[in-house]
Amino acid sequence: MEIINSRNRIRYYLEQHAISSYFNTENIEFKLLKYQKGEIITPPHDYFLFVVEGGIRVYSLLNDGLIYLINQSTGFIVLGDTAIAVRIIVTNFTEASVDDTYCLGFEMAKYKPLLMEDAKFLRFITKSLTDKLFSFSPDESQAGNLKNRLTYHFQMNYINKPITNMKDLAMAFHISNRHLQRVLCELLQEGKILKTKKGTYRLAEPLTTKTL
């Protein structure tokens, strides 16, 4: 992570995304942070961040140590809204998914007491969390997103071992076995996985995140 000390660049992003319109609180000191692909982005309890350029990937670790992709996004998105809303430490991980990902943010501890009294900001947080709730919800209409998440899950966890335990996989992704089989069939047709025997698959070739 690199701190970019450029007032002009900070002003540009503030104006481009109309970020000041989300606050009644004045004189917030924003910092511009730059991340490279694969870097873990500053934990949300340290900074409240606006991703203003680039992309991110959000994932968690399952009990068996496997990586579960929650979502990935490019462009403008908020990080830290959950930490503002609830008094728990968020255990998901967020990393930059592309080089030169820029985040505009401020220190959480310094401004949270003021922002909890800022009605405009709290309305913004409510909308942000609502949008995430709907975008992260497993739904039949999100088959494309699910396929990306499954592909990433396979890439991170099954490079040199068979893909089995379809029931556990369906439970981990909060989908039905039938839904899982439909997505696996699509991945088979696209040549991303191969079926070795009933209920067992493997990656057709080592994938890169560009495939996602």
Short key terms for the protein model shown above:
212 residues; alpha+beta; Jelly Rolls; Arc Repressor Mutant, subunit A; 3-stranded antiparallel sheet; 7 helices; disordered C terminus
What does this structure look like?
With 212 residues, the protein is α+β, with helices and mostly antiparallel strands. It folds into two domains: 2-136, Jelly Rolls; 140-211, Winged helix-like DNA-binding domain superfamily/Winged helix DNA-binding domain (Arc Repressor Mutant, subunit A). It contains seven helices and ten strands. The strands form three sheets. It has a five-stranded antiparallel beta sheet. A three-stranded antiparallel beta sheet has the order 5-4-7. It has a two-stranded antiparallel sheet with strand order 9-10. Strand 4 and strand 5 (67-74) form a beta hairpin.
